[in-house]
Design a protein that fits this description.
12 strands; 402 residues; globular; Type I inositol 1,4,5-trisphosphate 5-phosphatase CVP2; alpha+beta; Deoxyribonuclease I, Chain A; six-stranded mixed β-sheet; phosphatidylinositol-3,4,5-trisphosphate 5-phosphatase activity; IPPc
Length: 402
Amino acid sequence: MCPTPVSTKLPHRPSGGSSSIAGFSSSEKPLETCEAIFPKMVSDDHEGIQKYKVFVSTWNVGGVVPEDDLVLEEWLDTENTYDIYVLGFQETVPLSARNVLGPERRRPSSRWNSLIRSALNRSSSYDPKEFSSKVGERQKVHPVKDGSPREFAAARDFRCVASKQMVGIFVSVWVRGDLRRHIRYPGVSCVGCGIMGFLGNKGSVSVRFQLHGTSFCFVCCHLASGGKAGDEVHRNSDAVEIFSRTSFAQGPSIDLPRNILDHDRVILLGDLNYRISLSDARTRSLVEIKEWSTLLESDQLRVEVSRGGVFDGWTEGNINFSPTYKYHPNSDEYYGCDQGRKGEKRRVPAWCDRILWRGDGLKQIRYDRCECRLSDHRPVRAIFIAEVEVSEDLNSLESFFL
C-alpha cells in the first residue's frame, strides 16, 4: 500500500471494498483473481473433503519494532507441521496522531514479514538452543510445552498470499508452497472504527480467499479500549460496524461471498479488549490461584457470546491460561502489582487477546498463549483442523502426476 497523504485519509471511510493484496516480494506476484490461475479442468459435481491444519495467532506488539535477530520459531511452533499460518498484529506502530493521520509506516510490517518468512522457511538445521542464546530475554519467544517435539521437515516452503496493514493493525497469511496454486480470489477489506468513528487506530483488517472449493475469511480486530464500567458497549459497537461494513469485491465470473458471515469458514482474532467485570483486588486474587472458571463467569466477551448479542453464533475454545494483559514489558509482572512504582496506572488483568470462530467445518485442537515478553500483551494462538471441499476428479488427476 502506497503512503497516503493526510488530506486523502480524513474524508475517506476505510470500510469494505478494497481488494488489493500487499506483501509479495518482487519475485512473488499476487495471485490472479480469475480462472486463469486455476482452470476449471474438471467438474465440481463430485466433491470430497480434505483436512488442513491452520495456525492462527494474534499479538499486540505495543508499537515495538522487532530487532533483526528476534526468534519466532517457538511462537510459530515450527517444530510441528501446519498448512496455513494466519498471523494478526495490533499496534505494529505506536498509535500517535502522526501515525493515525499521516502516511502509512510500512517498515515495521515489512520487518515482521521478513522475520516470519525466515522462521517458516528455515532449514531443518535450526537449533532452538543455539538461536535462543543469541538474543536477550526481551526478544526471546519462550516455548509452550505440549509434549515431545517432532522432527523438522527436511525442506520448508511457505509463501505469503496476503499481507495488509491499516495503521497498527496488520495481517500476514502464509501457505505451504504446494497449496499456493489452489488459493483463488484473495481479497482484503479494512474498516476503521477509531477517531471520528472511521480512522484506523481501531477497527479491522479482513482477508478472504478460496481454497479449492471452500471460502475462508479471517478478521483481525483491534476494538475500543477502556476498563471502566460500560466501556464494553463501545467494543460491541465496533464489532457491529466491522460485521456490517466489511465488504469484499466480487469475482470476475463467480458469485463470491461479499460479507464476513457469508464465507464457509470464518475466524476472528485480535485484541478485542474485553475485560473482567470484577474489582481489581478480586480479579488479582483469582488470577493468583488460577481460578479461571470463576473469572470467566465475569468475562465481558463470554457474557456477550452467551447472551446472543453481537457475537451470537460464534464459538471460543476453553481458556486454561493466564490473562494476557497488562504486563510490564520484559517482565512476568502485571501492571499495578508493585505499589512502589510511582504514577503507575492500575490495569486490572484481562483476557484482551482472543480467537473465535463461526460455522461448521472447523475444529479447534489447541488454544494457548505464548510467553513472549516483547510488549505488554502475551500472544495467543489457536490450531484448527479445517475441512475443505476438493473435487474428487481433481484428486485423481493430481495423483496421476505424482
